[in-house]
């Protein structure tokens, strides 16, 4: 999970907030000390831009690393910007 989160350029705090858990819970998932409930897995796959198969087994469409400055205006960077906007609205909304 941490590889996919890093590739998506999402912080632990932002990822945790988007799925409604505390950052220590997210970190426990990333460090295999705990696992998310099964019904949360599709949402996590979408958030991390990976296939559900990859998230569950490590096989399938996994993280896609991009050079940040080369792809500054790509859909991926816009998605990260959108995530930041959603978090900001949740905090003030």
Report on the structure:
Helix 2 (12-19) crosses helix 3 (23-30). By secondary structure, the chain is mainly α. Residues 67-74 have low confidence and may be disordered. The termini are far apart. The chain contains six helices and no strands. The radius of gyration is 13 Å and the shape is globular. Helices cover 58% and strands 0% of the residues.
Strand content: under 5%
Q: What's the Cα radius of gyration?
A: 13 Å
The biggest beta sheet reads: none
Uncertain stretches: 67-74
| Total DSSP helices | 6
Order of helices and strands: HHHHHH
Distance between the termini: 29 Å
Helix content: 55-70%
Annotation, overall tally of beta strands: 0
Mean pLDDT across residues = 81
Structural class, from helix and strand content?
Answer: mainly alpha
